[in-house]
């Protein structure tokens, strides 16, 4: 007779967990404008943390280390902004040429499929898609104020996180009573160490991917070589999906530029797929599996979930966020089963 109340109690606890999770996800979605810059700032802080630790070992004063990091971050943001608007401007200038190339491909495909005279795939699209693309790119450029304000907010958040870096752990020990304060501090150190290592290694592999894409574009004569290199670096932070997107885009670009020279198109495809096969299927899984102890299935689910909550930015942050949750779950007794579920299964 005692088992039934226990079962009801467990079911009630599970229902509370589900309701709490839904409410938290809804809150994260609604508070995107504030929380997303804060979360991005936290991960930028963790990315630069090893650099600060190294400077401290070299006896560089703390304020000077913070100043160096903020200068590096400011230069990075300025260069990224310049590159973004410069690339959009160049693409807008050359887009009419690519639209004409697409029309040629459409005519060739219509002839091969032996469609009726005057019928083509473009004629089915009963709207001026060329102008729609141009206007979309122009509106993206017009969002400069929003992008700059978000970047400025992130910059300020990172500054305050760096200034609080030395006092954060001592305050955690004091704020949380008994031995729990030490446990929270140890958990924070583990999160700090694991995520910092992941972000650093991921950045190095992404940089290698971007460099190889850039060199491959130069070797094949593909337009916008630097843009493809930078995009390969950025999209490599999205597990699995990112590599597929950037490879597909470069192949579409090769088709638009080199058609009907199939040899060049196939050459580009082979090079890009080979780069992703070596770096994406050998090195990246080792980082995600060994470093983070996350299930590949959970990684794919988290990409979908965080992509829905915070869009493309959420997909970039999905893996580090799930890693942090896995560490937290492992250190909370009642949540340990969830840590096992999202883990890779290794001890």
Record the SSE blueprint.
Layout: H1 3-30, H2 32-57, H3 62-112, H4 121-124, H5 129-142, H6 144-163, H7 168-175, H8 180-220, H9 225-235, H10 241-258, H11 262-291, H12 296-331, H13 336-342
Helix pairs in contact: 2-3, 2-6, 2-8, 2-12, 3-5, 3-6, 7-8, 8-9, 8-11, 8-12, 9-10, 10-11, 12-13
Brief sketch in words of this structure:
By secondary structure, the chain is mainly alpha-helical.
Walk me through what this model shows.
The protein has helices spanning 3-30, 32-57, 62-112, 121-124, 129-142, 144-163, 168-175, 180-220, 225-235, 241-258, 262-291, 296-331, 336-342. By secondary structure, it is mainly alpha-helical. The chain is globular. 21% of the residues are buried.
Arithmetic mean pLDDT? 78
E-strand count: 0
Low-confidence stretches: none
Coarse shape: globular
The sequence of SSEs as H and E is: HHHHHHHHHHHHH
Structural class, judged by helices and strands?
mainly alpha
- Please report which band the strand proportion falls in: under 5%, 5-15%, 15-25%, 25-35%, 35-45% or over 45%: under 5%
The helix count comes to 13
Using only C-alpha atoms, the radius of gyration works out to 25 Å
User: Helix fraction?
Assistant: over 70%
Distance between the termini: 37 Å
Largest sheet: none
């Amino acid at each position: 007779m005692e088992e039934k109340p226990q079962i009801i109690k467990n079911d009630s606890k599970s229902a509370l967990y589900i309701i709490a999770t839904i409410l938290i996800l809804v809150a994260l979605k609604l508070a995107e404008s504030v929380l997303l810059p804060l979360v991005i700032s936290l991960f930028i802080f963790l990315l630069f943390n090893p650099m600060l630790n190294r400077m401290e070992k070299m006896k560089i004063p703390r304020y000077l280390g913070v100043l160096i990091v903020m200068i590096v971050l400011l230069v990075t943001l300025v260069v990224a902004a310049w590159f973004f608007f410069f690339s959009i401007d160049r693409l807008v200038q050359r887009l009419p040429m690519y639209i004409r190339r697409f029309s040629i491909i459409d005519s060739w495909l219509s002839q091969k499929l032996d469609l009726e005279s005057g019928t083509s795939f473009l004629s089915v699209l009963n709207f001026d898609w060329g102008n729609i693309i141009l206007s979309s790119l122009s509106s993206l450029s017009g969002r400069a104020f929003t992008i700059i304000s978000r970047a400025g907010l992130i910059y300020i958040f990172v500054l305050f996180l760096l200034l609080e870096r030395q006092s954060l752990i001592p305050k955690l020990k004091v704020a949380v009573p008994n031995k729990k304060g030490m446990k929270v501090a140890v958990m924070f150190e583990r999160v700090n160490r694991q995520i910092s290592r992941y972000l650093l290694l991921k950045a190095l592999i992404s940089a290698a991917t971007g460099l190889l894409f850039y060199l491959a574009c130069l070797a094949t004569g593909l337009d916008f070589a630097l843009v493809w290199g930078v995009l390969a670096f950025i999209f490599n932070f999205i597990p699995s999906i990112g590599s597929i997107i950037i490879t597909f885009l470069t192949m579409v670009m090769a088709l638009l530029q080199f058609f009907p020279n199939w040899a060049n198109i196939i050459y580009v495809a082979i090079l890009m797929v080979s780069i992703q096969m070596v770096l994406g299927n050998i090195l990246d899984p080792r980082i995600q599996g060994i470093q983070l102890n996350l299930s590949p299935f959970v990684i794919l689910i988290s990409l979908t979930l965080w992509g829905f909550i915070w869009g493309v930015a959420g997909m970039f942050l999905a893996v580090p966020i799930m890693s942090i949750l896995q560490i937290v779950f492992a250190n909370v007794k009642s949540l340990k089963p969830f840590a096992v579920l999202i883990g890779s299964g290794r001890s």
